[in-house]
User: What shape does this take?
Amino acid sequence: MKPARHPAACVAVVLLTAGLVAATSAAPVIEAQAVGSIMLAVRDDGVTVRESYRVTLSPTSHIVRVPGIPLEADLSSLRLMDRRGDARLENWWRTGGADRRSGLSATVKGESVQLTRTDREPGRPGEVEIQLRVAAGGERTFDLVYAMTGITWKAGYDVLLRGELGNVTNVMSVDVDGWIELVNHTARSFSNALVSIVGEDRLGRTTPVKPPGFLVLDEDSPLSDLWLYQPPEKGTPHVYALPGRIDVPAADGLHLSHVAARRKPVDRIFLVRAEEIPTDARGVFAHPSQLIQFNNAADYGGGRAVPPGSALIYLGSQRSVLHQRAWFKHTPAQGDIRMDMGKLEGVTVRRIDRGRRTVPGQGVEQTMELRVENTLDQSLRLIIDEQPPINLAWTLLRSSHAHERTDRRLVFQPLLEPRSEVVIQYTMRVTLPGS
Amino acid sequence: MKRAMTQVGAMAARWGVAGLWMSALPAVGQTVQEASAPQGVTVSIYDTGMALISEARRVSLAAGENDIVMRNLPARLDPASPSFGSSARTAPFDLLEQRYHYDLLEVDGLLRRMAGQPVAIPVAGQSREGILLSGPITGATGRGEAFLPVQARDGRSLWMMDAGQWSSISFPFGRDLIAAEPQLHWLVRARQEGPQNFRLVYRTDGMEWRAAYELLMTPDSAQADFNARVEVVNRSGGSFEQARVRLLLTEKGLSEPLVPEREGALAGRAALRYAYGSNQESFERSVASLAPVEMYELPRTVGLASDRSTFVQLAQSSTLPIQRFYVYDGVRFDRFQRNRKTDWNFGTEYHSSVQTHVEFQNEERFGLGMNLPPGVCRLYTLRADGTVDLLGEEQLGAIPVGGKGYVRVGPARGLSGERERTGYVEVKPHHVYEESFQVRLANTSEQDVEIRVVEHLYRWPEYQIVRADADYTSPGPQRIEFLVALKPGGRRSINYTVRYTW
Assistant: This one.
């Protein structure tokens, strides 16, 4: 049998509960002080901020007001990193009117009512309050990490190519200036910050949005010739730590120099890829590309990887000709940077299919021929990155020239004498499925 | 009450508007009893944007009919929804009539209701005083502007105030005419005199919740720092102190993504299904049930202030064991989809990225051990210099206690794949086809890796692997998986032939 509860006891419980509720909701708010440096990891679509705060606490639960977290911060990403390890983040919210939606407020004075439109009030940034639970009180320092939008970066390169591009034996050099532009669109400045930029190599492409066209048909229709749009695969992001500490001003941008190279010698490479070479017995041909290559040595990127960015390439010491706009890919330290300077008109490459023949007991053999003609007065070494145009399994039987093989590609590097022709022939055994 | 009305009448007479006042809240009961502020509040927030509130109230009643007024209510309360419950064997009273009053939700409606009342509107530093003749009236220009007609106190002038421009407006005798805070009035019949406890239950709009997860990994570590949190958005126009909060997943809420955002000809095409007893298919969203599929209760009471997003930590583990693995699922479909079964080119395109995945277990011994709702999971890495870098985000499905969570981290550094179709034969046209593939993997990283190579046999469910130069498993329909070990700098290729029959 349950003991009867006295009504006065119930009232006392209710009053006590109400008192506790009132005490919690009326708990004093402690101001946190920002200390130490700020770390920013800036991506092309946002930034991750880590900053330190100091606060003096007594044991149990506290509400701490944290200044300076911008409106652009995504509070669902807020993370507390406590050096002692016993502080736990319980709840958090943004104070102020930033979230305000209702349109009218009323003030009563005597018999009078004044209505005020609250949607006309300017938005206030407010501050973030966090409810912490700690095992022990005292002064302590903790870090807050959050993701936000509003800070962007991009890299740019200014390249001056010295020498004569039309003469394949001419020795050339480059001057390169590289800049990283940081733009802070928020109303918060970040002083004395350690900044790193993070980005994948998109080869200068912006994320494409496929416009609706006549090919976008009902996917259930048997007549649809549907080209399903798929966004490009995400690449592996690279991290570039910027040297020193940086002041990132509010609502402003800054340019930081990260490459300054003068008269840096370059290599010249002549390359043709299999995908460019037509397979035809008639006189259809491809020209090789002329590439300028130099190394990301200490005199270029200071021994660090350099980020991808757009490049303006000028010719002539007076920058008299803007040769082209290009894209510099991510280049690790000691990696090579290549600039495609266009086609080399004096050299032609074509591929001729010499046909298949069935060898009794040994399957089918197929022969391909590459004909390379040099009409220039200078000799040069050409790199041919060949892939046999066959969509079946094959094994190489013989080749007229030395080559390197990687998977299904063959790389030939013939020396082209002035005004001469080189013929490369190779034969494969082709395997048919089920044979 | 009578005395107050006499005073208002006298003041109104000085404004020359005797007889124009009215009462917004006419008394409906014998006496007006103020119910206590809510206590023991439980807020059940549905994934459709509404919430069910249950709260304890106390009121002293006289025997017979009473008019109860309840305050501390949200502005977006559904006036048709309030009801009450009691722990007593018999109900403490009978509810005869109920009305909900709140005037600040809709400005134009309020102004229309206040027509005929004295008004003061500040304009250019001066107060224009007179009688509001009507609510906003549309101008004759057809440009959509609206005006408030105000007759000056002397009765000789008529001002047409721009209804869109005022920032404040005063009604000198409006206190009893305007419900400036949400009020619920009940006319009840009490069986006996004395204090009564009851539980008020009502529905309100403007409440949402979403879960978010944070996984902070340190390179090469087998443990991660995991945080689960919930954002509770309160735009109901009311505050809830120390509330127990329940988060509900419903079939209706879950069916929302079945109406995807699409472009072009497919835009806005909603999913359909049959409701029992109906011969006509209906929109899935309208047929789906609001019954909870899953409920998650926050671990402690929470204060939900008005117009605020409150973030609540659900679970946290700083030493959550994780397992990384790599997957190469190389096929991609872009073109050549006219006839998937027999198109010579179908499935010949590929991408080269090998993806890193992370797997963890939702168990109490790792600091979790509660059902985790679906939400966005953000992945971070902690670098040696202390910088925290966001790797990406991924939708995480619901993870029950004891279940496993899978998150795709992104492309693996130094691992790449290629997938090439090396043969295609119509053994018996339109009945038997054979197709051969070579999958090549390269590891330019500095660690030993194992890559799960996933191959989909997408042409037809009836298939046979007639040749494969590596062992494989079949973890699902029309899917085979190879496990390939690669040393640093290693390369490996896999060849297989599949025969489809139909």
Observations:
- Chain A has three domains: 19-96+112-148, 152-185+249-343, 347-431.
